[in-house]
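agent> Task received from the user: take the single chain below, predict its 3D structure, and emit structure tokens. No templates, no multimer pairing.
agent> Plan: (1) validate residues, (2) run structure prediction, (3) serialize to tokens, (4) report one or two observations.
agent> Step 1 OK, no nonstandard residues flagged.
tool_call: predict_structure(input=
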Amino acid sequence: MNANVLDQAGNIREGEELDAKVVTDFIRAAVPDLQGTASIKQFPGGASNLTYAVSFPNKEFILRRPPFGKKAKSAHDMGREYRVMQKLKPVYPYVPNMVAFCQDESVLGCDFYVMERLVGIIPRADMPKGLEMTPEQNRALCLNVLDRFIELHSVDYQAAGLADLGKGEGYVVRQIEGWTKRYHDAKTPDVPDFEKIMAWLHAHMPPQVKVCIIHNDYRMDNVVLDAQDPTQVIGVLDWEMATLGDPLMDLGNTLAYWVEANDPPAAQLLRRQPSHLPGMLNRNEVIDYYCGKMGLSTDNFVFYRAYGIFRLAVILQQIYYRFYHGQTKNPAFGAFGQMVKILESQCNELLAGEI
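)
tool_result: status=success, residues=355
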């Protein structure tokens, strides 16, 4: 396998540096046989928690910490994320091994944790250059990604000691009410009001189908693929939003990111995973496959898809609100207002004849 297709960290962004000696001393206290001093690089992204590759001559780790600057501690609860993965690992083997958690802010100025690094391929908007896959391989990958999702939703959360992960029951109502409030709070004058869409969602809330562990951000770019066989999933990442909830709501979230090859150009702007490749299932096939394996009805799936699109619009709008009001200077966020408009159009198209 060409090493260039493996997911690689890069240079650390200005203002987000870590003290290598401090990191070395902390990890060595948990892993005594380390050699040398840490070499630290940073993975791209950073609208949420920051992710660093920490390498020693004989071992590699991942360090996760909240963004620099002021933040609501509840929005970046590193201890919760660490504990969720620690408890999940014995029953869901795709979680990385956890190494150590630090809540002493004198170390790095924040809570953070260290876990093993899963070396493999992360399928982002496009597969890495040099990785050529056939339609048959793409389909196998797609099904394996969905099977890991189904496996998560089938975990016995009580036996895993995760009954306190969330409220569980009443999830559908809480999500619709919560995301509606968040959109009202984050709305700027240059984006749609979503009022008809929000009213439709409130009027069509289905009963909750079951309570299970949900990831809340399950996408192909949050999985790690085996470098030797890229159709196989060896890891699932980014558990910060995991909770107890409704699995079909979780699937609705996933489908909001599922851009197909024949979707219009505006929708292609939102693509963050290679779901457009030949052999990948389309959205309806994903629903049929998932619900068939879970023994759930595919009826009235418009609600879950509309919810997923609306929720994604709110997430983007919350970031755009900060850009609009000068609270962040990242120029990439300037396009998020336009993306919110695209998502509103997708919702209206989906609900045509329903509203």
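agent> Step 4: summary for the user.
Residues 135-350 form a domain with the Aminoglycoside 3'-phosphotransferase; Chain: A, domain 2 fold (CATH 3.90.1200.10).
agent> Done.
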